[in-house]
Amino acid sequence: MLNRKDALTVTVLLSISFIVLPQSYGSQMQEHGVEAESTHGEGAGICPVMHKEASKEYSYAYKGKTYYFCCPACIGEFKKNPDKYISRIKEINLEAFQFGFSPDKITVKKGDIVKLDATSRDVTHGLYIKEYGINVRLKKGETKKIEFVADKTGEFDILCSIYCGRKHHDMKAKLIVEE
Amino acid sequence: MKKLLRDKKDLVILLLGILFLIKIPQGGIRFVFWVLSGVLIAAGCDILIKRFFLHQELVLKSAIISGFIVSGILDYHQPWFILLIFSLLAILSKHIIRFKGRHIFNPANVGLLAASLFGIPLTWNIGSRIYITIAVGIYIAYSIRKLPHILGFLIFFIGLFVSQGINPFSLISWFFIFIMLIEPKTSGFGKLRGFIFGSIAGIASFVIYRFSPQYDFFIGSLFVANLFNPLLERIKK
Ligand SMILES: [Cu+2]
Questions:
Q1: pTM of the model
Q2: How close is the nearest chain A Cα to the Cα of B87, in Å?
Q3: Domains and CATH numbers, chain A
Q4: From the list B96, B209, B214, which residue is nearest A10 (CB)?
Q5: pLDDT-based confidence at residue B237 (cuts at 50, 70, 90)
Q6: Interchain CB contact of B187 with A (< 8 Å)
Q7: How far, in Å, CA of B110 to CA of B64, rounded?
Q8: How far is the CA of B159 from the centre of ligand 1 (A)?
Q9: What's the whole-number mean pLDDT along residues B34-59?
Q10: Chain B closest CA to A33's CA: distance in Å?
Q11: What is the pLDDT of residues B113-156, one digit of tens each?
Q12: For A157, which of B54, B77, B122 is closest by C-beta distance?
């Protein structure tokens, strides 16, 4: 039998790790993906030129759309050939439902900026792409904007990370990043 | 056969084995190794602790069940160390977190709760066949006298979800109810106690789903119900 003191120490350590680690993991989770719409209001997403986090301070409107950049130099660069950069932005509406995703296949090129407008048709689902460190909760009636740079080639599973019923484990879509 | 099934744990292992086999065509080779490794890790860890620390006799059925549950629910695309950590944690919790000489938390559930808190997706692969789970589950629940637990859970689970306009049957996990909720040692005996235990879990599952669905609401709800065990123990049978 472990003695009382040991047991207590281990229990305390476990509880602390339960509380502290998820939080640090949570911040890690968005390492690659930038959740544009966070609780702090709408973010600026990813700079189409440098692929860094953009700021609202540096914006440029083109053909009725506003683009955000990470620095003034990038705006200059963008202005030289806007269509070149815009063609590398892939905007996709993704809907989760019981039990699947629509569309169930997303194909992009390596280096594209992928912008997902994700929502749920019914109950709460989770949008999970392990290799891109994305794990976002999708509630019915709420649209989450998720942005990331498709910097790894291959076929990646898009899974549901929140239990949503009998065929939860069947919820699957593919992210295909071509060379 | 009759002798084998007298201990209901054998029946649970049999059911888990069948659910596992059914899932293999879809899960593939990685799923097979994932689940078997989970069972081996859990059983191995239990052997080590019982043999060298507690000097107890080796009864491994519980550890095998825990291993099946943890590995069958965790997403099997995760790295192997994830399986190792959370299977070990399940067994360790059983030997470490104790109240009056008994463990009060369902071991597999502790492992899965930790995984859920870390943001590891729980895909519940093993819980996909509902008819066999319900059929065998009702028999198990009846014979180990756990029907009050299930009744309490269902009343609140169904009631609360319906009140929010959500179809409870599209969300319910029968695997959770019949395999995890009524685990003999951590759910308590007696009609009233069982009913209250189930009710707490039912209410907790709804609250978690409603307010922090990023944590698995079944796993979370069982943890909450287990927390009440020291209190519920005061209820006379
Ligand atoms: Cu889902």
A1: 0.80
A2: 15
A3: 31-178 (2.60.40.420)
A4: B96
A5: low
A6: no
A7: 15
A8: 22
A9: 86
A10: 15
A11: 999 998 888 989 888 788 899 999 999 999 888 899 999 999 99
A12: B77
